[in-house]
Amino acid sequence: MSHRKVSGRGHVGGIAGLALVCLGLAGCAGSDDITGAFSPPAAAPAPARHATHAAPARASAPARTASTHPEMTPRALAQAEANFDRCIAGLEPLARSRGVSAAGFRRYTAGLKPDMSIMEKLQTQPEFSRTTGDYVTMLVSETRIRKGREAMEQNAAVFEAVGRTYGVDPYVVAAIWGIETNYGSARGSYPVIQATGTLACVGRRQAYFRDEFVAALRIVDKGDVPESHLRGSWAGAFGLTQFMPTAFQRDAVDFDGDGHRNVVDSVADAMGSTANKLKRGGWGAGRSWGYEVVLPRGFNYLLADKNVRKPMSEWAALGVRRPEGRSMPAAGETAYLLLPAGAKGPAFLMTDNFRAILSYNPADAYALAIGHLADRIRGGGPFVQPWPEDQRALSRLERSELQKRLASRGYDVGEHDGAIGSKTRTAVREYQVSVGMLPDGLATGEVLESLRTRGGS
Fold first, then answer.
1. pLDDT of residue 11
2. What's the pLDDT at 125?
3. Domain of 268?
4. What are the recorded GO MF terms, alphabetically (predicted)?
5. 456 partner at 20 to 30 Å CA-CA among 76, 152, 155, 344?
6. Using CA atoms, how far apart are residues 92 and 101, in angstroms rounded to an integer?
7. CB atoms within 10 A of CB 306
8. Measuring CA to CA, how many Å separate 130 from each of 7, 138, 181, 371, 399?
9. Which of 86-95, 123-132, 155-164 has the lowest mean pLDDT?
10. DSSP characters for 259-304?
C-alpha cells in the first residue's frame, strides 16, 4: 500500500506499563494477557551489543511458579530450555513457508538463547485494585493531554493525511499513541525475536507464539524494521503504538512512502498503521466513539447491556439526555448503554466506533480512556458526572468468591476464576433484581457483602 509521502519521524524507547485490572468489564483480557497491555511497568533487560542473540539478561534457571500446567512445571521448563535450539530449528519450514528467506532464518536465529525470566511474567498475573474511574483518571492526565496536543502539532501533516486517507478520527489515533507508549518515550527494551522465540519454544503458549515468532522474523528479513530496533514488551508488542508481530503483518502500512513499514522509527507509518487497524476494526467516518449521557429517574437498568442496541431516537424517548443541554446525535445512529462504574457513575451511549477501539485492545476501561483522551486533546472538557469516590475494585480472590456464592444460589457464572465475563455480569444483574438492588450488573463490594449476608458458600 502506497501513500503520498508525508513528514514525521521520531525515535522511541520504553513501554508504557498499563496497570489495568479486569474490573468486571466486558472484553477484558482476563487471566491470560499475553500482550503485556495489562501489566505494570517492569525492569526490562539491559541492551547488549547484540541482545537478541546474547545470553538472557537474567538467570536462565526455570521460573519458579505455582502453575499446574504441564508445560510450566520446573522440570518441563528445564527440558524446554535444553531443547531450545532444536525447537527453533524445527520452525524453519514454517518460517520459509511464510516468506522468511533461508539466509534470513539462519542469520536471525544463530546463537539465539531463551530468556527464561519471561516465564515468570507469562505465569504471574499481577493483582491490581483500580476502578474504572481511577484507571481513566490516571491515563487521561493534564500532562498527557498537553503532550498529545504538542505531538499532533509537531506532526500535523501526518495526522491530517491519516484522517483524510482512512476516515478515522486522528485524535483517537494520537490518544492510542499517548496511552500505549506516552508518545514514544516508553516503548520497551525486550528484543522481540528473543522474546517471541522464547515463548514459541518454552511454556504454555507455544502454539500461539510460533506465529508471532515467525512474523517477527519476517519483519526484519523483509527490512521493515532493523533487528536492533525491534524491541518491545516481554510478549513481543513493539513500536510507537504497540503492534504484535502478526498484527503488524496484517495492518501495518508504509504511510511515509519510503518502502518500509516501520512503526518503530516513523511516526507516519505508526499513525497510518494504527488508523488502518481501527478502520479494519469497523471505524465509521464522521462519528464519535460515544457520548456521555444522563439517565432519568426510575430508569430501567436492565437496558444497560451490550446486547441491547437502540437508535438514538429510542434512547431519547426513554428519557436519556446528554448533559448540559447538548444535542443528541443523529436519530438513526445506534448505540448501547455502558455503565463502567455502575449506576452511581457516569453513563455512556457507545457507538460502533467504540467497538473499533476495542478491536485494538478489548477492555472497556482502555477504550474509554482512549476516547476520552482524544476528546480532551481536541479541547473537550472532563466528564460531567463524577466517578464514585466510595467505589473500590474487588480483588481476584473476592471476585472468585462472588462467583462461587452466585453459583451456590443457582446462577450460571461460568468458571470461578475471578475474571468477570458476560455470564457473571448477567448473574450479578439477576441477583440484584432478586434482592431489590439497581441491576447495573457491576460486581462490587456491595453485591459481595449482600451475598455474604444472605448466606451461600
1. 28
2. 58
3. 30-126+141-279
4. peptidoglycan lytic transglycosylase activity
5. 344
6. 9
7. 16
8. 39, 10, 20, 19, 14
9. 123-132
10. S---TTT-HHHHHHHHHHHHHHTT--TT--SEEEEBPPTT--GGG-
